[in-house]
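2024-03-11 09:14:02 DEBUG pipeline.ingest accepted 1 chain
2024-03-11 09:14:02 DEBUG pipeline.ingest length=213
2024-03-11 09:14:03 DEBUG pipeline.predict start
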Amino acid sequence: MNIDAVIFDIDGTLTNSTRAIIRSWNRYLENSGYPHRLLDEDLAASLMGKTMDDWAMAVLPGLPLEEARRMTEEMEEAENTEIRTHGTDLYPYIRETFEHLSKEYELFILSNCGKGYIEAVMAYAGIEPHVKGHLCYGDNLLDKPDNLRKMIADYGLKHPVYVGDTARDKECCDIAGVPFIFVSWGFGDVPEAEYRCDRMQDLPDLLHHIQNT
């Protein structure tokens, strides 16, 4: 397979933003005046990779979805400001690997996160010059399989692969017909994945192996 693009998930693949999300969201919720459920590490980890509607209903279960969505958008803005100001917990070798891979492949980021989150993480990580495009649930309210298809069509990709960390990522790739590479340092476990990467710096060699099989 002649890989022409590598599409990355973000949470659990490039960064663990749990601490930044918990800080910013709980600060907002405690001042909201609405019944709410505060985030902790377990709840945040269980929601990683899910749509922002799932996040909204988890922390504001008593509100109508439309109202919860409005408040979630405000929490997303607070989260993005937190990341741009105080950073996020990036996994090792992200910047170096993106710089290396961008010489051979077109690189993209695609996630079920909220609007502006990918841009905030890219800015903090210093990988903006190496990313050709990005797309998320917050941009158009489409779930990951539909956005995978949209990204492939919009950029005319022929043989992309998707790099992610959860069984849901693999399921989305199966639906969209995109080969999936599982990274083991994130939030999930996908023992049935055909391709597995245990260190980000090993990804270039794995991509070469996939192309030659």
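2024-03-11 09:14:41 DEBUG pipeline.report The beta strands are 5-8, 15-16, 89-90, 106-111, 133-136, 160-164, 180-183, 195-197.
2024-03-11 09:14:41 DEBUG pipeline.predict end
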